[in-house]
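Need a sequence for this fold. Nothing fancy.
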């Protein structure tokens, strides 16, 4: 019985090495991914098209949003700003079914502009209640989508130069192992310093591991982000149904 449960729950490699344990009450994974010199419209359109076709593995389902029954909502008319010079542009959601067709996860995608590039905040959470651990599945959901960017016509060398993980909540890299995406050293304000180091698309030794956030600091950041988002929506006059 135990072996059967293990088989049903297990994430199928690769990219199952960043398990989460109850970060959001349930297991979840949030990654902020910087795409250098890639505009938000390109990323949003690519994700919307890919997800509408089942995603890279055929097990994603694009969900409607309040503003768009066919996928990503365009929030650019509301001119919503966030800290660090980020501008909120697009918002989307998908459901993902695990390989063994046992569970579903919800993946939320927030696309923001930053200078000449894009910040993608990808958040995956286990739908089934009581999922304290996810065996790495929520991280894998995001990894599958990011690897699918190859379909945009970028080569692996190009992707390694434009993609980096800016920060994460939950789903920490294993101690002593390379992160799937790595970021250059960061200042205390969270600004990426220096050039981006190689990502999963061009694995290399010596990738910089992201430090784990203390629980109190992570909670404070979540509260601050929520308050900032609510203030921005109120200032932009976004309808209540979109909050």
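Here you go.
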């Amino acid at each position: 019985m135990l072996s059967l449960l293990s088989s049903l729950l297990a994430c199928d490699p690769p990219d199952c090495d960043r398990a989460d344990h109850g970060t959001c009450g349930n297991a979840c994974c949030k990654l902020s991914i910087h795409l250098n010199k890639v505009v938000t419209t390109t990323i949003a359109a690519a994700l919307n098209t890919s997800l509408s076709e089942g995603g890279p593995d055929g097990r994603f389902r694009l969900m409607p949003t309040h503003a768009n029954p066919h996928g990503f909502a365009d929030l650019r008319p509301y001119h919503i700003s966030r800290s660090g010079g980020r501008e909120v542009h697009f918002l989307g959601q998908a459901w993902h079914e695990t390989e063994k067709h046992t569970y579903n996860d919800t993946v939320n995608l927030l696309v923001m502009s930053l200078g000449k590039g894009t910040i993608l905040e990808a958040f995956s959470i286990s739908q089934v209640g009581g999922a304290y651990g996810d065996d790495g599945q929520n991280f894998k959901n995001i990894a599958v989508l990011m690897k699918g960017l190859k379909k945009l016509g970028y080569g692996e060398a190009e992707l390694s130069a434009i993609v980096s993980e800016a920060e994460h909540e939950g789903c920490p890299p294993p101690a002593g192992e390379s992160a799937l995406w790595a970021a250059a050293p960061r200042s205390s304000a969270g600004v990426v310093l220096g050039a981006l180091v190689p990502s999963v698309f061009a694995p290399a030794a010596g990738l910089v591991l992201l430090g784990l956030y203390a629980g109190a600091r992570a909670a404070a950041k979540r509260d601050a982000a929520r308050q900032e988002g609510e203030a921005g929506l109120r200032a932009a006059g976004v309808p209540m149904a979109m909050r």
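For context: Residues 1-8, 182-219, 239-243 have pLDDT under 50 and may be disordered.
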